[in-house]
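Support request from a user on the community tier.

User writes: "When I paste my structure tokens into the form, the page sometimes reloads and wipes my input. The last time it worked, I copied everything first. Here is what I submitted, just in case something in the input itself triggers the reload:"
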């Protein structure tokens, strides 16, 4: 079994329910940031709390590519997910033959292998139709 590494440290944690994205929230103005920010981009405060984002959101927009990329074989899909916390998360999407993508459809977070690199499995987050 290949070693498992994160695509970027601090983006998510895995737990008994699958996983959750880690963001931060400004204590002064309430703005939420994902990925985490060093300081609030709205009010410049550096007083930020770590928060866990919801595991579900709604598909805002998407595209499907039929050309391979450096890490993804065609066809693959990417899109923006509107989260209940008031932010949009950019993410790879899981293509499900029986559930074609539709704007505003419910999407669920999963933590999954994204690609292999130097003999290691690179893990990250994706969203799939509910």
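"...and here is what came back when it finally went through:"
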């Amino acid at each position: 079994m290949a070693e498992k590494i994160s695509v970027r440290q601090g983006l998510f944690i895995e737990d008994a329910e699958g996983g959750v994205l880690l963001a931060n929230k400004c204590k002064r103005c309430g703005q939420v940031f994902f990925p985490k920010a060093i300081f609030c981009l709205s009010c410049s405060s550096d007083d930020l709390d770590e928060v866990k984002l919801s595991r579900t959101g709604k598909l805002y927009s998407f595209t499907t590519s039929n050309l391979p990329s450096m890490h993804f074989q065609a066809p693959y899909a990417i899109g923006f997910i509107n989260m209940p916390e008031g932010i949009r998360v950019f993410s790879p999407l899981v293509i499900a033959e029986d559930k074609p993508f539709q704007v505003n459809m419910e999407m669920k977070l999963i933590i999954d292998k994204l690609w292999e690199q130097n003999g290691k499995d690179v893990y990250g987050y994706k969203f799939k139709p509910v």
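Agent notes: The reload is a front-end session timeout and is unrelated to the input. The chain is about 0% helix and 50% strand. The longest strand covers residues 106-117. Escalated to web team.
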